[in-house]
Amino acid sequence: MMRVGVVGAAGRMGSEACKAVANATDMELVFAVDKNNIGDAVRDWAGVGAGDVRVTADLEKTIYSSPADAIVDFTHPSFAAKNAIVALSHGAIPVVGTSGLSQDSLDEIERACEDTGKPALYIPNFAIGAVLMMQFAQRAAAYFPSAEVIELHHNKKADAPSGTAVRTCELIASSRTSDPAKDSTEVIKAAGARGGTIGGVPVHSVRLPGLLAHQMVIFGGPGEVLTIRHDSMDRASFMQGVLLALRKCSSQSGLVIGLENVME
Ligand code: NAD
Questions:
Q1: End-to-end Cα, the chain, rounded Å
Q2: Is 157 known to be catalytic?
Q3: What pTM, to 2 d.p., does this model score?
Q4: Residue 130: which of 238, 211, 218, 203 has the closest Cα?
Q5: What is the pLDDT of residue 22?
Q6: How is 171-240 classified by DSSP, letter by letter?
Q7: From atom 20 of ligand 1, which residue's Cα is the shortest distance away?
Q8: 131: pLDDT confidence band, cut at 50, 70 and 90?
């Protein structure tokens, strides 16, 4: 049985992760850490598979008394790197799902991997369909250099654009074989109307209640338009990827970024 702890366990993603781990026959939920809901019984939302695990406040103290083989982190970009380093220093592999980590944070995690000889996974999107969308977009960019990304998320999301959108733009930029068509917009009537730009790809972030996680990649060519769209309709859509990453994490080395590198 793989021993797994969840950090951010009382949040929207963390509570789903507790449920997925508690219901996996090859995993044991050994702890659930959050700065809120301390003392709550995890089985109240994750089912009997969660045993007697209750929400605790401090990852370092908790992982010391309840060792884990891996942790899953769904907290906030300003805490996730520290949590990953605490996990590594206690022999647990961090599987970081918190999105929007800075390059400095990723560098810190990578150094901790080198120091401890343990791997770490940073997976900005656990939805298998979203990973395929990025791969399809990368393939399309070789033929359609002109592309724009529109990502749509719920209005509680902390970062914009999403980690998936950033990665999609980077992949498009890396596989373009010619320059995109010139944009002849001369007058911007509202700041940001043409979005931000990553690797020369315009990216637009929509934030509205009612949405979960959605993205469109639109390619334009002479007389044709190709749209690739992915929609996560429910947070359960991420859990197949969470379990896959947990099952594969011990065979990785160093800092692995992106579910696509674990799926292969
Ligand atoms: P949320 O606000 O519902 O949950 C975050 C939880 O983390 C909260 O319960 C909060 O109390 C807790 N928390 C924050 N800082 C903490 C700390 N220092 N120690 C302990 N607990 C702490 O947010 P959410 O919607 O669950 O999203 C969490 C993260 O996951 C975000 O970065 C989001 O973008 C990301 N996310 C990733 C994926 C993916 O596929 N990788 C999918 C959806 C969301």
A1: 23
A2: yes
A3: 0.88
A4: 238
A5: 98
A6: HHHHH-SSPPPPP-----SSTTTT-EEETTEEEEEEE-TT--EEEEEEEEETTEEEEEEEEE-SGGGGHH
A7: 34
A8: very high
pLDDT confidence of residue 124? 87
With the most atoms of ligand 1 within 8 angstroms of its CB, the residue from 60, 75, 86, 167 to mutate is 75
Query: Rounded to the nearest whole angstrom, what is the distance from the C-alpha of residue 189 to the centroid of ligand 1?
Result: 35
pLDDT at residue 63 is higher than 90:
yes
pLDDT band at 175 (very low <50, low <70, confident <90, very high): very high
Burial 77-101 (b: 16+ CB within 10 A, else e): bebbbbbbbbbbebebbbbbbbbbb
Helix, strand, or coil here: 67?
A: coil
Q: Please state, in angstroms and rounded to a whole number, the distance separating the CA atoms of residues 50 and 42.
A: 6
> Which residues is 93 bridged to in the sheet?
70
- For this structure, is 153 an active site residue? yes
pLDDT (0 to 100) of residue 264: 73
Give yes or no for residue 207 CB within 6 A of ligand 1: no
Catalytic residue among 35, 82, 90, 157: 157
The mean pLDDT value of the chain amounts to 96
Active-site residue (options: 19, 153, 204, 214): 153
* Residue among 243, 260, 261 at smallest CA distance from 4: 243
Which structure tokens are listed for 209?
A: 């209640």
Other beta carbons within 10 angstroms of residue 200's beta carbon come to 13
What is the 111 CA–ligand 1 centroid distance (Å)?
23
Three-state secondary-structure class, residue 163: helix
- What's the rounded Cα separation, in Å, for the pair 22 and 4? 9
